[in-house]
Amino acid sequence: MDLAELKAEARTAAFAARKAAFARGQGQAAEILADFLAGQSGKVLAGYMPMRTEIDPMSAMAAHQGPVGVPVILGPGQALKFREWSPGCAMQEGAFKAYIPVEGAWVEPQVVIVPLVAFDARGFRLGYGGGFYDRTLEGLRAKHPVIAVGFAFDAQEMPEVPIEETDQKLDFIVTESGVRAF
Question: Which of this chain's residues are annotated to bind ATP (predicted)?
Fold first, then answer.
């Protein structure tokens, strides 16, 4: 089995685990994330608009003391850009049906809340397969320090995420049971 097949198989299992966890609710996960982010006050934060069964970071994003951006997909094979977001701002459907602000300044994050399908104890994540966050984190980290914070349900942890050379490691993972540093 090649790496692409291993990742596809891992995604199938992880989506099922995430769906079951989503049905049970996220408990105190957003509050734990907000408490963690309080230590990043004043820094530019990138969050995301949750889709389907993704864990929801929006209340933690709204509580952040500093600029907050959300990802905008410019096209296949490109890094993400982040448009400034605030609660209640006008939104429109963007690529992959992810909602993005209708207008707003482009911001460059120092802290990125990273959605994921699965993660492991080494700090690696399995995304959707487009490589958007890996390219983005690599580019940002080449310019300045960036903290990558995975946000997930405990049930999304797997023994070992299949990785390749381009996969970017998380610095932290926040789940409903707490924060882990890598």
Answer: 125-133
